[in-house]
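Quick start: what a row looks like.
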Amino acid sequence: MEFSAAQAFCNHLIENKYSYGNIIHWTNQHFVQLSNDIFLLTGKRVSESTLKRFLGKKSTRNAYVPQRFTLNAIAEFLGYQNWDELLDASKDSSGKPKLGSKKRLHLIWIAVTLIMAIACWLSITYLFAKKAELTFQPVKQTQKVPFTTVFNYSLKAGNDSVFIDFGDRLLLPIDKNKTTVTEYVKAAGYHKVYILHRLDTLAKSYVHGLSKQWQAGFSPNDRYWKYSAFEEPALFKRDSILYLPIAEKMKLLPAGITDVYMEYRYADTFDISLDQLDLQVEAMNNKPLGGNPCFDIEVLLQAETGDIKYRFVHPGCFRYVDLIVSEKHFTGRFDDLSAFARDVSAWHKYSLKTANNTAYFFYDSDQIYSCAYRKQLGKLKAIIVRFYGNGALRRVSVGDTMLN
């Protein structure tokens, strides 16, 4: 009983820590993020599969009790010294230890105030000190793929738990005794690069992998950061249409992988702002093309300081609509995005116009949705069109320029 109460207490604290809603409705991406955050904050790795079982997302035949190492890692992530301390806290319905008399409450208040003052002082000291602990300078940022990007850095001795993320959600520890780190860039796109210390971002940069033409590849389900490019463009270019028959695609996929998004990417040094854009995408996706019932068409536009992503889905599947406009993010599970549920089984236009910090979305010639935003997006860097299953792409134009 005590363990079940502590388990529910953990669920409550984690749901409050993030803005993803009830854990039962979390996607695999959310659990990957939680796993990475636990590792960054505690230095202890807890897999997303373990987290799913512990938090009740994945059912088990018997009551699931993780190893002590896992329980302590989760407790530390939630601000407790270890699992026993979290267990004690969970015994009170408010999630706080019982205080007893007024005198004890007064003493605890004084102790908490003192601890908070010390913590604030340490935080301020750390924030001013951390900038001096690291220098981080990219050598090769923008180049046609494939290429190797080089970053020079200097990390002071004594600073541990520092990692670099090249945009693929894989955290690579940085050796403080070295001064250079490299990465092979094969995927076209605008890749954010972060230097992280626990949950703090020490530095960030980017790698702009240029394609100068359409590049095709796939990503497992909705994990776009695991995108893998196909080698030969002739495989998917058929006259004026970008399309790879499903039988051909299955030959190219690694063994055991079938549930994938097909992607077409175009990355270039566009001399146009995503805040003043007129984009037209003509595409189609249906069950015969891709073999999936809830087929969709997704457009992702990457820019200097943010993205716009919109997804049209087959009628009846608007729960899977996903919309990102700069700092705003909406999902079909929690927001009314039914306007994006349209017939995508034949050739249609899925267009976007931006002006005055507002994005306008069109299905053929009809405006179906608009969204205002605050944070400017800057120059366009890459256009990515994705299909759950397969799909076909006939035309993409930016203003009066058609991308071949």
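That is the whole record. DSSP finds eight helices and 24 strands in the chain. Helices lie at 2-17, 28-42, 48-54, 68-77, 83-90, 102-133, 246-252, 287-290.
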